Amino acid sequence: MLNWTLGFLEAIEIRDICMRFRLTGLTAAALGSSGFGVTPAGAQTIDLSFTLPRLSVAEYHRPYVAVWLEKAGSAPRTLSILYDVDKRNNAGAKWLRDVRLWWRAAGRMLSVPADGVSGATRPAGSHTLSFTAGRGGMPALTPGNYVLVVEAAREAGGREAVRLPFTWSGTQANASTSVKFELGRVSLNARR
Question: Are both 154 and 185 inside the same structural domain?
Fold first, then answer.
């Protein structure tokens, strides 16, 4: 009986490995040479740092924050949308349209929660998000001019958006700015 059980488990493991290989091969073929899920040694990465200021207001709600990438001649790409993902029946998605610039640019077309893109809201303080080409919504960057947009909107509060233009040469780019209300300092570091 023991030998049969071990043989059965080996057969399952072999079948699982073959199944994973087939799915991986199918996924890679469907996506072309983008290397989905596999990051080469010199992968392009954007590190975004932003501050959500502590506000002294009677009714404070954590802001929804959207981050997307724009390039002339290309559709905007949502890199991250931070919203109330823990609400029952995905009720937090109902308020995503209040992140207006993002909603008009790319949000309407995104089905949430989106794997690798959606995340929970963040408390006041400094935060860092990293985006790697081929993962989530981050495309491979070709040399040219880009704009990284960060928008924050709060229930019973304000909204603010900041645009960080940068030129990607293929190796490195930096940009930063400071704003006053819903966002504080925002900076990006793009590198290979």
Answer: yes
